[in-house]
Write a structure and sequence with these properties.
The two termini are about 20 Å apart. Helix 1 packs antiparallel against helix 2. The strands form five sheets. Strands 6, 7, 8, 11, 12 and 13 form a six-stranded antiparallel sheet that branches. The protein is an alpha+beta fold. The protein has eight helices and 18 strands. It is globular.
């Protein structure tokens, strides 16, 4: 353990490395035990060299953004968490006629990116203004909301593959689908992405963002920690409606509960544990399957030890 710590400090900077860091402080669920090592990757070079070290030594690792789609185990993570949120967040933009071309680091928050694009009177990012994740995670899972998806604005992504090779991958080669991309299959790590936006009208962009923010406040349980939508939308159905129709709204195990405001969310109403959340998810899946024949697939990613 000492050797791992010393090498991570050498490669990533001692000021960026913590031991036994609680993941509850780094997930929007506010749940999760301690990671053996937690590295705030301040630059692409640190992330590349740190993950390469873990590969050589056979040390488990996970690259974390804002932790907005994550359920971390109560017993923590045995290995290294590399966090890009707010560190690998450089943003450059240039206008070419009626287009805005941007290049952004994987750790930039989607809300910040949406605000920067809107401030220049360009459209295409409004849908993501209320998503609490980072660009890197959004590209990996093709995050979306309100009829918009990251796939619609990404030109290409700089990706580090499991062997540590870095390459530029065009939109078509990312094989985007519903909450899916090639990177989920190949476990690629997004370092940055190139994006494009169309010129719009400032008042219309602002109105659209305000409307979506109001709809989120009205319909989503933003007053409680959660990981967003707990289950993917099954073909031909809506997960929230299936859950509600099965009488599961408000179903609770400890402080983990199916939201009584939006049944597509499992929320932490106090001091919920990861095991309690998993129990709620499993009960929802079993009940919906028994009553409707539809198996709900989790959208939330589980990491660590439970």
């Amino acid at each position: 353990m000492k050797d791992i710590y010393e090498n991570l400090c050498r490669l990533c900077g001692a000021e960026n490395v913590k031991k036994d860091e609680p993941l509850s402080a780094h997930t929007t669920f506010r749940i999760g035990g301690p990671a053996d090592f937690f590295v705030s990757a301040a630059a692409e070079k640190q992330l590349a060299e740190g993950t390469a070290f873990c590969r050589r030594k056979g040390i488990p690792f996970f690259v974390l953004g804002n932790g907005s789609n994550i359920l971390a185990g109560d017993r923590g993570f045995r290995g290294v968490i590399f966090c890009t949120c707010r560190t690998m967040s450089d943003l450059t933009m240039r206008e070419e006629g009626d287009m805005l071309l941007a290049e952004a680091g994987a750790g930039i928050l989607l809300g910040r990116l949406a605000a920067e694009v809107a401030a220049r009177s360009f459209t295409g990012m409004e849908f993501a203004s209320g998503i609490p994740g980072t660009l890197g995670g959004a590209v990996v899972m093709n995050a979306g909301a309100y009829d918009g998806e990251i796939s619609g604005i990404v030109c290409s992504a700089r990706v580090m593959d499991p062997q540590g090779r870095i390459r530029e991958v065009d939109n078509a080669d990312l094989h985007f689908g519903y909450r899916h991309s090639l990177l989920m299959e190949e476990e690629g790590i997004v370092l940055s992405a190139r994006l494009s936006f169309r010129r719009g009208r400032q008042e219309e962009i602002g109105a659209r963002m305000a409307d979506l923010a109001g709809r989120r406040r009205q319909k989503q349980p933003l007053e409680y920690p959660s990981a967003g939508s707990t289950f993917k939308r099954p073909a031909g159905f809506f997960a929230a409606k299936l859950i509600q129709d099965c009488g599961l709204k408000g179903y609770r195990v400890g402080d983990a509960m199916v939201s009584d405001k939006h049944s597509g969310f499992v929320v932490n109403v106090g001091s919920a544990t990861a095991d309690q959340v998993r129990s709620v998810m499993a009960h929802v899946q079993e009940t919906v399957m028994d009553k409707t024949g539809v198996m709900l697939e989790p959208e939330v990613k589980l990491i660590g030890e439970f």
